[in-house]
Amino acid sequence: MLERLRSVGIALFLCVVAGGAWAAADPPAGHDWPGPVSADFSIPDFTFGSGEHLAALRIHYMTIGAPHRNARGEIDNAVLILHGTGGSGAQFLRPFFADELYGKGQPLDASRYFIILPDDIGHGGSSKPSDGLHARFPHYDYADMVAAEHALVTRGLGIHKLRLVMGTSMGCMHAFMWGETYPDEVQALMPLACLPTAIVGRNRLWRDMLVDAITSDPAWNGGDYQIEPVQGLTTAEDILTLAGSAPLVMQRQFDTPEKVEAYIRGPVAAARRAVDANDLIYQVESSRDYDPSPRLEAIRAPVMWVNSADDFINPPELGIAQALAPRLARGTFVLLPISPLTHGHGTHTWAAAWKDRLIALLAESGG
User: Which domains can be identified in the chain, with CATH numbers?
Assistant: First the structure.
């Protein structure tokens, strides 16, 4: 779930955030889609589900392409793409995602679609604990995040129906919530790499272990640390690396003990140095009450739900997707077999593995 892409070129789901390694990313030279435009949207007096408040909640976002208005003056080509835990909208500028989708003649051709890439609460350039409140930051959950996404889309950008909501990992879970909460405001849904059910079992276990590792470090000091709790973050990054692992890819990439050691001392250590402990705790704990399973029948839009067979976080042997998919009135569930195109949980960002399914969804839901 946590979008931390390692610099060694393999797509785990682990990308360096904190202050925004992703936020600094630019599209590669030579791409044939327009560069992103960055902006901030402020939501005054935002009330969280916990009852806590922020006088102003900042949501940072980027857009690619331009809005198109129909005969009624309504924007009808907006696509919302939602990132995973620990990521940001800027991760969707990477060539293995963007060049496969946004270019001329591609499924989300930016000359045709208006693409919106927000940073969720607690992530990227949006309001988060490390801005200064630390562990006194309001305790947000997925419902708060989806409410802020909706405010950006409707109040900030004046969009009343989205052509598509696509989400990866945490964003995948948000996509299901969009379909249930705003069934008349989405034309199609493409959730990638998640399950629409409560996070329990091993998926909850590794999250709790990660949080315990940080909060058990004396340097954490109840969240009021002056120096990051390195011991706790080291264990947290180790857990994240395993949770996001792709065995086939890693076996090829790290085919000697020396390469494994270099990876641990290089990209893994760099990810630890880049993350803020409070931000990471809040990001992981925001899933605490997620469970859209009771209301799946409320989703009316066509759904193209794609998981991969090598996903440690959403293992297919649980049978959860197979049991829940029939409850989607217009849903298709696809389990991608392990192949050179899959990258474990991170398959959600390697568009070549599933963009044919996106093309089918767009055709089914109106072109």
Answer: 37-364 (3.40.50.1820)
